[in-house]
Design goal:
With 55 residues, the chain is mainly beta. 0% of the residues lie in helices and 35% in strands.
Amino acid sequence: MSVDADVVRAARINLESGGSSELTLEYTFDMPGEYAVAIEDLGPWTVTVPEPEAA
C-alpha cells in the first residue's frame, strides 16, 4: 500500500491458480488533509482526513 507514492505497508500472499484471499491493511494518518492511496497498480484513490473535532 502506498500513500502519496510512498510505500507504507507491504504483504505477500501466495495463491494457487484460481485461489482467492482477503487481506486487510491498516494505516493511521498523522495529519488532516488529502492523500493519494494505492495498492500495487490499483488506484490511487483520494482519502480525505478531516480536522479533529473540538471537544
